[in-house]
Amino acid sequence: MNDAGEIFNLMVWVVTIFVLALLILPQMFRILREYERGVVFRLGKLLCAKGPGLIILIPFIDKMVRVDLRVVTSNVPKQEIITRDNVPVTVDAITYFKVVDAEAAIVNVENYLEATSLFAQTTLRSVIGQVELDHLLAERDRINQSIQEILDRQTDPWGVKVISVEVKDVVLPDNMKRAMARQAETERERRAKVINALGEFQAAKKLVEAGKMISRQPVALQLRFLQTMSEIGQQNNTIAFLPLPMELFRSFEGLVSKLPSDPDPERAASPEADDLEEEIPGVSNRDIEEVEQKTEPEESKPEDEEESKPEDGEKEN
Question: Domains of the chain (ranges plus CATH)?
Answer without folding.
Answer: 2-67 (no CATH), 72-172 (3.30.479.30)
